[in-house]
Amino acid sequence: SFVIKGISIIISLALVPLTMNYVNPTQYGIWLTLSSIVAWFSFFDIGFGNGLRNRFTEAKASGNLVNARIYVSTTYASLSMIFGTFFVLFLTINPFLNWSTILNAPPSLESELNKLVIITVGFFLLRFILKLISIIIAADQRTAISNLFDPLSNIISLTVTLVLMKTTEPSLLNLGIVLSASPVLVLLIATIYFYKNDYKDFKPTLRLVNFKYFKNLAGLGIQFFIIQITVVVIMSTNNLIITQIVGPEAVT
Question: Please, what is the average pLDDT of the chain?
């Protein structure tokens, strides 16, 4: 895990100047601010991921594999319903939002920003659901493997961004698609692979969705939810404040 985290940090550091060279500092600042705002949507999982990690570990350790699979299936169903409903509501409200004003961006980027926001939010919510496979792997005491997904997605982002730099004009929309889609692609492949192999006994199915287990998952998860809210508010509001007071370039 230590080695993987180190590699992940190095790749992330390499990705920053690369993306800044692909788009200008103002566009990169807009992307950073938008990413911070989208991160707030993680509130809506109500701590389900952390609840699943604990309940899955308990069930597996006690040999109750059926219960473990019910917890997995119910969490997937619950998050899909929560995030699916939120995305529909977001699509309904989004036409009334002026993202150029929210992000203090140049008016010329308004059309591009509207598309970028929808794509970014969609991929982020999908990523949150697919990330459950990482939580299950970590709950199974295989933390190094679960830590592998982020650097893999960063490698894909790095590679595709290099290709874009050589083949296309600078585009905030293209950059957003690459950085949003890469983690989703990695997690989708991991989800398919692990549920076909290592965790086929825990593969989620609609047949085992049982909302009576909702309380067990959410009850424990709500404690983590409170912690998550404080962390996100502290860590993610800086960019929005900076872009409104000084401008997107100052965020960069």
Answer: 86
CB 217 within 8 A of CB 51: yes
18 pLDDT tier (thresholds 50, 70, 90)? confident
- What is the pLDDT averaged over residues 49-54? 82
Whether 144 contacts 122, CB under 8 Å: no
Average pLDDT over residues 52-62: 87
Query: Cβ neighbours of residue 50 under 8 Å, at least 6 residues apart?
Result: 135, 220, 221, 224
Taking the CB of residue 165, how many other CB atoms lie within 10 A of it? 14
Taking alpha carbons only, the member of 141, 144, 95, 143 closest to residue 118 is: 95
Residue 2 has φ and ψ, to the nearest 5°, of -60, -45
Q: What is the pTM of this model?
A: 0.83
Residue 159 token pair: 């590679």
